[in-house]
Amino acid sequence: MIGVRGQPRCGGGKTEAGKAAAETATNTAADTAADTASDIAPGTVANTAVDISWTQRRIYWRTYQWDTARAQRRTYRGHSDAHIVGHSDGTSGGSGKRL
């Protein structure tokens, strides 16, 4: 049996039940990936139970989690949240100086 994109199907053992389960899992994963890709616009985060691509996870992490972690570290060093504005690299949005 051939799986996604012509690659040999992995797993499932030699029993008919195992083969059927592996084929079902392969088809389900392919269908889910296709549906997810068509439903989610680039740069957005899925608020669903289906898995999302690694690219989507990376965009979400860099956009939200990283800024949050950086803000927490700066707050811990004595900066208030009110001072944390502008770009995530620590530069301010318009004044040209660090806040």
UniProtKB/TrEMBL annotation:
Which superkingdom? Bacteria
- List every stretch annotated Disordered: 1-27, 76-99
Q: Where is the composition biased (Low complexity)?
A: 18-27
* Record's protein name: Uncharacterized protein
